Each structure stands twice: as C-alpha cells, then as structure tokens.
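hey m, so remember when u said the tokens were messed up on ur end? i reran from scratch. heres the input so u can diff it against urs
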Amino acid sequence: MEESKLSERKKTLLYNAIDNYIKVASPITSLLVKNNTLHNLSTATIRNELSALEEMGYLRQLHTSSGRVPTAKGYRFFVNETLKNAKFDKRGLKKVKQEMFSRTNNLTEIVDSISKAILGATNYPTVFVFDGFRNLLIEAIRVVFLLEGQVLVLIETNVGAISNTIFASPFVTKQDCDNASIIFSKIFAGRPVEFLMQNMESFSESIKKSMSEYEEVFKLVLEVLDIYYKGAKSSVKGISKLLDSPVEKKEVKGIINVLDSDAKLVEIMDTEDTDSVTINIGDENSADGLSHMAVVKAPIVFDGKKIATVGVVGPDRLDYASVASVIKFVTDEITRQSIGGRDDKKRRKS
C-alpha cells in the first residue's frame, strides 16, 4: 500500500490537517499546521511536506496560492487511521438506544424508529435498505376479514410484523380467513420467507388440491410477501439535512436523485455481508452524484442472518469516527437484542 511510503511525520501532518479541516472547513496551510500540530518545524519545511502530499494525491489545491483540501484518497487515509484502533464510546449513545426500540413489533415502525435514532445522533440523511427480507423467519400468518372484498394480511416474523390491507374476492369469508390463518401458521411457522417463496408453486398446487377453499386466501398472503420479496425496499430520513451540510448546492440535486432511487440506494448500500462498518468515499461509491460524498454503512444481522443495511450519507468531510460509532452501536445492539430475544423465547418454552 502507498500509505506505507508515508513517513511518520507525513502521517502525523496529514492526519491532523484533515482532522482540523473536518472540524472547521478551513483550507490546510503551512501556518495552520504549524500552529495546530507541528510546532517545532518551520513553515517552509511544512510547505514542502504539504507539496509532497499533494503530489502523492492526498491533498489538492483549490486554486493557485490557495490552501489545500483533502482528496478522496486523503479522506481514505484519515478513515483508516481513525478506525484502526477505535473503541466506540457507548456512554453517549443512551438516547439512541432508548429511541431505537419502540414497544411496537410492526416492522415498518421498527425501521422508522432505528432510522430516526441514527438521524438524531448524526444529523445526516439516514438510509435503511431492507435487502434481507428473504432471511426472516415466519412465526405466524394471520388473515383478518375486515369487510366484504377487503382483508388485512398480517405476517409475523422473528423481527417484526408486516401487514397490508388488500382487496379480496367476494367469495372469501370471515370463516375462510380464520381457518386459513390457523392452517398456514402451522405449515409455515419457523420457516424462512425464502423457503415459502421458492416453493410457492408447489404449495399453491398442494393447497389447490387438498384445501381448495383456502386457495384464494393463500394468494392474498403471497401477494403481500411478493411486495417485499421481489426487490429491496429502502427508506430515507433527513434529506433536508443536506441543505445544512457543507455541500455545493449544485451537488445536492445529484445526491437527492440518488436518495430518491431504490435501485441506486441498493447499489451504494451493498455491504457484501460484511459484519463491520464500511465507509465509501467519493468515487468509491458506485452511483453517480456522490463524488464529494461519503457513505457510512453496516449490515443489520438478526438471528445470524443479514436482514437489512443501514447507513448515513453525508459530505466527505463528515465526522467519520462519530458517525461510524453510532452505526456500529446500533447494529451491534440489534444483534444483541436478537440473541437476547431468542434466549427469552427458549426460557419461556422450557
């Protein structure tokens, strides 16, 4: 790695210069570095070091005779050094934990709660991509008859419940819904959503042959599952926060276009099933419109399976350590809660 070619003095200078730039957004100059970091060196020596770092691609000048600012490569160095031995302080994250888990078990509201907690702690747009729906375990399936031609399909999973009110055939009765709920729960409880969806043709055929009276109800259940299963669903909170961040207004439009697209969000939030925080800076992001932005993200793992990805999108001079600590705390806490919840269920059964 080219970072190994950096002398300790260059590393110290570069790290502290970028840290100061992130905090005050003031271009890096030899005088600023001398006053803040390397007091024992002359401004001429520091100027030479800054020029060398610029030639190596860690810094760039905005224009001739101006101070320098970090490049994506410079930010990458800073992030690697910052997170190398980072131990995230959880003491300041009590409020996040309080807001993260509401009493409801509705999956939409749980996602909303997690996103709001991260947004409140970081003050940057928060993205939640529900890209692991197939890994959820079904606990119960309930079809509630509301009125003629309309039913509520409620699917309880190990993470939370999803529900949709949909139109049904006029031939579907309340008794059909009640009976089908009991039967479907017995058949599918404890199985992953993926198992049901991959075998839905054989299940549909079996129900059509042996329980034809519940065929229409089963189609309603599949219709709701299909909404989530066919593509990763995303939600974004706090887009307006971009207007308060140090981002060129002309760049905000491109960023919002990314945040408005499910497909692009799935692309930039892909974590390749890693179990740690990932930080992509500038062109490290695959989507256009993020050349001066950073994405800090991590998978959400529940019962050992990835169910979603959560992250923050912000300017490339965001406070990486702070944002990464929030993301890591949230994802670790969800994993811990899933293990604790599973143990509680075992104790109740024994």
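this time it looks ok to me. The CA atoms of residues 206 and 212 lie 9 Å apart. if urs says something different then somethings off w ur setup not the seq
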